[in-house]
Please model this.
Amino acid sequence: MSFPKLVPAFTTHIVLDPGITVGATSKGAPLTIVPFTSTNSYLRSVDDYPIKVDAVFVHGSDFIRMDPSQKHLRLDVNSVLKDKSGGYIGYKYSGIITLTPEIGAVLTDKPEAKTTDFGNVVTHILFETGSEELKAIEEKIYVGTGRFIVEKGQPVVVEYNISEVTA
Model:
């Protein structure tokens, strides 16, 4: 019997702008949209990963919906990255946040909010690119785990450690 293995691939830092509450939509659950700030938001390969990416966010936003149980949030992210090679990358992911008191404090901008641990935010990432130099990222399956980084006086950052799934 063989189970998949994870190979560390990328780290991403996504600087968040304040969320926009859209409200209840035809899909049921209320919708919140959180835009990404391009300044200081990036995706980079870890040192020994063979696919080299060093990209910044050009545009992006996270569509977030609360589960009826109010114990989880569902993430639907679409964004565009520009690699230092000049190539563009479509960066999409779906994910689930398990709401903990610590994550709730971050998301509601409470004064006691602090940096969270990895483990309560998990994602499945899809990359698309027309760049031949980066094309190999389209041929892989990636998953990630995230955390929120909180620094006084600074916007919240979501940090993801992303791994390739291999057989």
User: Anything to note?
Assistant: The first strand starts at residue 5 and ends at 16. Residues 101-107 form the longest helix (7 residues). DSSP finds one helix and nine strands in the chain.
